[in-house]
Request: fold
Amino acid sequence: MKIALLLVLCSATLAAGCGSSSGKAESADTFMRRITTEFSRGQAGRLYDGLVPAEQRVVTRAKYLACQRNGGFRMRSFKVLDSYGEKVDVEGTEESSTAVTVQVTSDDGVTTATMHAIKIGGSWHWMLQPADLAAYAAGRCP
Reply:
C-alpha cells in the first residue's frame, strides 16, 4: 500500500519550516500537508530537501533518491485531526516539535498517523523513522 509507505516515511517525525507564498509563516499543519502531497506525487527530491540536516549528513541525496520506490498515489483527502507540542530526539538532543495527527485517504484506503514537525533555523524539516535512518547509516535502502 502506497499510503502505508507514506506513513513509514513520515510517522516517526518531521522537522524545520518554510514560508508560504503569501509571506505568512507556514504552520506545522500546513507543512505536513505539503510533505504528504509531495510524497503522493512521488517527489523524492523535494522530500530530501526538507529532510532534517543531521539526517542529510547520514544519507546522500543520490542514495535517498535511488532508494525511493514511490511513484506516487492518488490522495483523495487529507485531514488534520490534532496538533500539540511534544519533545523528540534529534542526534541525542531533546528538541521541541509539533506533533500533527493526520488522516489520509487514498485509493488504498484510510490511514491515520502522528508525525512531528520541528523548526530548525526558521524552517520546517522532517525526520526519517529510526529504522530507516539505521538502514541508510548501514549503506542499505530501508
